[in-house]
């Protein structure tokens, strides 16, 4: 089944190469490269299947369905443009679209991801379940905060309302800039359905419960798959997952995965030499956790009005239905 994609210039090879060079220079790899290749996409899908609450906790899908119904009821659109920011494998998007297809006379779906493989995965899922649905898939690097409003508008009718879906993205972006960027894609009357990985309590109480979700064989295979593709041999590095407090009161903290050099390492990529000394670290991944009590403040700071909250019983994940303030 053929899939036709649009590739945004933020994902052109020259820009990706410069982002990788910059990441190696600053010792912080951009998160996009964890998903970029087909092999990395498959490693992520395997990890997601094994550890994501949406896969391991069947009751969580009920919460998503409640949020989907609430969004459709709040919008009541005759024409809906459903935009998935970071579509991943498209499982949740397919679930939403199955709800929306009978409610919206005109329905347009735009899946976006930095990974070609994941956008294709989403499109194949949608084509098999909703083959007549109008779609405009886009491969794009949202971390660069590209200007997408003209591109979104050209595919819409005058009556279209946008529902932006942002599932699992917030933890892996700099939230103070990413959320205002997402808000900038919304017009009056548009809405955002955002999911967030949460800290079920303050840092000291929650870290032991959350850390194993990121420090396990599936996660390590995902992290080291990227390092191996760059030329780091397993014998040269020690990969470790640790945590860092971002607010002294314990309401915001991060999980970080980093490779520490066991021996001097020299890589040549895109005609540039990168030298790493013994003991030097390269950050591969981070994920930010917020307590449920913190999220309304985080959303308000980004210019978003919180309309409804759907909090899972474990308090490790929630959905937030938002409008522009």
Overall description:
- With 325 residues, this protein is of the alpha/beta class.
- It has a domain of 187 residues: Vaccinia Virus protein VP39 (Rossmann fold).
- The protein is 36% helix and 27% strand.
- It is built from 11 helices and 14 strands.
- Strands 1, 2, 3, 4, 5, 6, 7, 13 and 14 form a 9-stranded mixed beta sheet that branches. A 3-stranded antiparallel beta sheet has the order 8-9-12, covered by helices on one side.
- Helix 6 links the parallel strand 3 and strand 4.
- Helix 2 packs antiparallel against helix 10 and helix 5 packs parallel to helix 6.
- The chain is globular, with a radius of gyration of 20 Å.
- The model has no long low-confidence stretch (mean pLDDT 94).
* CATH fold topology of the domain at 6-12 and 54-200 and 292-324: Rossmann fold
Q: What is the CA-CA span between the terminal residues?
A: 42 Å
For the sheet with most strands, the description reads: 9 strands, mixed
Number of E-state strands = 14
Arithmetic mean pLDDT: 94
What share of residues are in beta strands? 25-35%
Uncertain regions spanning at least 5 consecutive residues: none
Structural class by SSE content = alpha/beta
**Name of the level-1 CATH class of the domain at 6-12 and 54-200 and 292-324:** Alpha Beta
The whole-angstrom Rg is: 20 Å
Helical content (DSSP H or I, runs of 4+): 25-40%
Please count the helical segments: 11
What is the general shape?
A: globular
CATH-defined superfamily of the domain at 6-12 and 54-200 and 292-324: Vaccinia Virus protein VP39
CATH architecture of the domain at 6-12 and 54-200 and 292-324: 3-Layer(aba) Sandwich
Order of secondary-structure elements: EHHHHEHEHEEHEHEHHEEEEEHEE
